[in-house]
Structures are given as structure tokens and as C-alpha cells.
């Protein structure tokens, strides 16, 4: 992946909140690092440029987290460095049994700066293990990834994993979009706030969302054992 995916990734995930369309992922190349050389040898000026590049890179990856629709990631083969940054931002992670993961940055002379060190420990819930993986840059298998809670399911093949992801997406799509989006918002908010703050957040959010027609539609469908139909957001 090029150093500057923010030119495409962030806008696309923002658009997903409003458009019902398929967005193909693309790998872009951008000469921003060349611009650093144009700043000359002044360390401070080059540092400001690199800070801005990192900031935009972080914003691109964070766009997956800020996208109000749930994001499912399917990983396979080598998932190294930036792949961990991306996987750590999504809502649901599936993988294939051939996958090998690594927080590889320490092995190439830098500290991960796009979100792994902030999100991965909270995802796996094991501070000691998260530090071990980040500080040693060692590989860990798909099975270990499931054992530590980094992924929820391991599939034998990529096709099977993709089918599983589509099935999960369809299941979520059959539910009230108000409920699904509200649930993701609460989960993302709760990760970085106390229980008390999370409960207060829910008070204000559900004060509005409980007035949705989706609630009565879902209850009615459950009682009649029928399939509810919800308006799009």
C-alpha cells in the first residue's frame, strides 16, 4: 500500500454512510515523500510535513472506525504492519487458516504510528501479550489470533471466509439500520469512555432512537414471525 491512501480511503468510507453502492478498493501512489526532500535539510520543516502526512494517514485508517455502518474485514496470507492497523479499526474480523499476522514495525526500525499501538491492546484485552507482539514483532497464526480475540472466526479457505462475511453482512442488513448504527456508535464510544459515561451517552442517544418506527416494526415482526421491512437511513 502506498504511503498516502487517505486521498481515496477516507472519502469512500464517508460516502458509505450515505450511498447504497459498492466501492472497489484501490491502491494509490502519491509523491508526498518526495515533497519532504523539497523542504531541504531543515529538520523542523521536514518534521512538520511528516507530521501532516502521518495525520492524514491516521485519518484515512480511522475512517473505517468512524463509518457508522459496520465494517467487516477478511484477512488471509501475510497480514503485516499496516494490515494490523486496518484490522484493528474494523468491527468484525474473519480470517483464513493460512493467515500470519505481525506487528512488524519494530523489526524495521520504527514504532507503529497509524493506530495499532492504541487499538490492538484494547481489541485483545491482554496488555502483556499485546506488548509482547508489538515489542518482538513476532508472527502469530490465525489460530492464535482467534484465541486472543483478534479475530472471531477462522475459515479453511478465502472463498469460505468471504461467504461468511457476506452472510454476516446480510444478517446485519436485515435488522433495523437505526439499531445497527446506534449499536456501533455506542460500542465505539464505550471503548474510550467509562461505564458511567457510556450509560449517559445511551440516555441521550436512545432518547431519540427509541422514537423510531423501527422499534414497533421489529417487535411486531417478531410476534408475527414475519420479516420486517425498514426504511433506509
From TrEMBL:
What's a single GO MF annotation on this record?
delta(3,5)-delta(2,4)-dienoyl-CoA isomerase activity
Annotated pathway:
Lipid metabolism; fatty acid beta-oxidation
List the InterPro entries hit by this protein, alphabetically.
Answer: ClpP/crotonase-like_dom_sf, Ech1-like, Enoyl-CoA_hydra/iso, Enoyl-CoA_hydra_C
> Would you tell me the protein name for this molecule?
Enoyl-CoA hydratase
Source taxonomy lineage? Eukaryota, Fungi, Dikarya, Basidiomycota, Ustilaginomycotina
Cellular-component GO terms for this entry: mitochondrion
Has the keyword Isomerase been applied to this entry? yes
A Gene Ontology biological process term: fatty acid metabolic process
What is the similarity comment for this entry?
A: Belongs to the enoyl-CoA hydratase/isomerase family.
Q: Which PANTHER family match?
A: DELTA(3,5)-DELTA(2,4)-DIENOYL-COA ISOMERASE, MITOCHONDRIAL (PTHR43149:SF1), ENOYL-COA HYDRATASE (PTHR43149)
Amino acid at each position: 500500500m502506498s504511503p498516502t491512501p487517505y486521498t481515496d480511503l477516507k472519502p469512500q468510507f464517508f460516502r458509505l454512510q450515505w450511498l447504497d453502492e459498492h466501492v472497489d478498493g484501490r491502491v494509490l501512489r502519491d509523491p508526498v515523500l518526495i515533497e519532504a526532500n523539497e523542504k531541504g535539510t531543515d529538520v523542523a520543516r521536514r518534521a512538520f510535513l511528516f507530521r501532516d502526512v502521518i495525520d492524514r494517514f491516521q485519518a484515512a485508517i480511522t475512517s473505517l472506525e468512524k463509518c457508522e455502518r459496520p465494517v467487516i474485514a477478511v484477512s488471509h496470507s501475510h497480514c503485516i504492519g499496516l494490515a494490523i492497523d486496518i484490522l484493528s479499526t474494523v468491527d468484525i474480523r474473519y480470517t483464513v487458516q493460512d493467515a500470519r499476522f505481525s506487528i512488524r514495525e519494530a523489526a524495521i526500525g520504527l514504532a507503529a504510528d497509524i493506530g495499532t499501538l492504541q487499538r490492538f491492546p484494547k481489541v485483545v484485552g491482554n496488555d502483556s501479550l499485546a506488548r509482547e507482539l508489538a515489542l518482538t514483532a513476532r508472527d502469530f497464526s490465525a489460530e492464535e489470533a482467534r484465541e486472543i480475540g483478534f479475530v472471531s472466526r477462522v475459515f479453511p479457505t478465502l472463498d469460505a471466509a468471504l461467504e461468511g462475511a457476506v452472510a454476516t453482512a446480510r444478517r446485519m442488513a436485515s435488522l433495523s439500520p437505526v439499531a445497527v448504527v446506534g449499536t456501533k456508535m455506542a460500542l465505539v464510544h464505550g471503548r474510550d469512555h467509562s461505564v458511567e459515561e457510556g450509560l449517559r451517552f445511551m440516555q441521550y442517544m436512545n432518547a431519540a432512537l427509541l422514537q423510531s418506527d423501527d422499534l414497533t416494526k421489529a417487535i411486531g415482526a417478531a410476534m408475527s414471525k414475519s420479516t420486517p421491512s425498514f426504511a433506509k437511513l
